[in-house]
Amino acid sequence: MKLLEIKDLKVYFPIKDKLFGKPEKFIKAVNGVSFHVKKGETFGIVGESGSGKSTIAMTILGIHKKAGGEIVFKGKTIESKEDFKFLRKKVQIVLQDPEASLDPRKKIKYIVREGLDIYKIATKDERNKRVKEVILKVGLTEEVLNKYPHELSGGQKQRVSIARALVLEPELLILDEPTSSLDVSVQAQILNLLMDLQERLALTYIFISHDLKVVEHIADRVMIMYLGKIMEMGSAQDILLEPLHPYTKALLSSVPLPDPKRRKDEEVFEGEVPSPLDPPRGCPFKTRCKYAMNICDEPPKPVRMNDRLIFCHLYKEG
Ligand code: SF4
């Protein structure tokens, strides 16, 4: 069952030359992206900084306005303020930096309870009971409830962020680089906690990361993005074991992997990432791709190969 469908999503940010003038240009942060997330799965979105992956998350939650396309959640098109209010009760986000996302002046019990207070869910006693239950679920003890964020370690703070998201009993959790700011040893603990919670609470995840190693660990399917567009999408296992798109190959070869078989398609990036204000015409990866041909001046159409979708002129269907 499709829990979330994103159809031809476009998110453009205007650039103005003068304070009150008309926008001179637009950064096309997300440019015609379509995907769906099935109930119970972990859908990974991978790309370098500026690929548009976090912009997609913020647009799903209504924080950024879309310039085009459709967001469908549980079969309902999300368009009005009321629709987004409905969606935000069911979709929660955990951000990269718990330090910045937890209010330093508030005790943990108020931070975790905030969502229940805003939506006036249950009585005060019941809310406090739910806060205690959820703090145990994320592997913390009740003692942390009376502490302030600065009294906790990085890993504990990220557990609090996860508890704050879970207290509203969401159906979809967007995890935006949830382990990037943590020490390597703590990263593994948080990933294991997320996988354990998914199994116990039947959660669905969108897992956003620049780190293919982390995504490999947790995702069922993965979408690789570059400059606001999809490069390749399919099962995480297929894509990570045998990447087909030149960008995915280059991305993978830049990550040291323990399995020597995985390095057989050694590729490296050429050149710099183009300015998002002036992206290449046609395939966005054209300026860095060693296979670029004349036809790459045209935007590649999606090519379906088994369960995989590839946007590259090197491939043909059938
Ligand atoms: Fe390279 Fe052309 Fe494929 Fe783009 S479409 S990745 S430029 S071969």
Task: Give a description of the structure.
The protein is α/β, with parallel strands linked by helices and 318 residues long. The chain has ten helices and twelve strands. The chain has helices at residues 53-60, 81-90, 98-101, 108-118, 124-137, 154-166, 184-201, 212-218, 236-241, 246-253; strands at 2-16, 23-38, 42-46, 68-73, 76-77, 91-94, 172-176, 204-209, 221-226, 229-235, 303-305, 308-310. The strands form two sheets. An eight-stranded mixed beta sheet has the order 6-7-8-3-9-10-12-11, with helices on both faces. The chain has a four-stranded antiparallel beta sheet with strand order 2-1-4-5. Helix 4 crosses helix 5, helix 5 crosses helix 6 (154-166) and helix 6 (154-166) runs parallel beside helix 7 (184-201). It is globular. The structure holds iron/sulfur cluster. Residues 246, 283, 285-286, 289, 291-293, 296, 300, 312-314 line the site of iron/sulfur cluster.
Keywords:
alpha/beta; 31% helix; 10 helices; binds iron/sulfur cluster; globular; 318 residues; 4-stranded antiparallel sheet; single chain; 8-stranded mixed sheet
Strands, count: 12
- Report the uncertain regions: none
Order of helices and strands: EEEHEEHEHHHHEHEHEEHHEE
Distance between the termini: 27 Å
Strand line-up in the sheet with most strands:
6-7-8-3-9-10-12-11
Count of helices? 10
Radius of gyration: 21 Å
How much β-strand is present in the residues?
A: 15-25%
Mean pLDDT: 92
The class by helix and strand makeup works out as alpha/beta
| Helical residue percent band | 25-40%
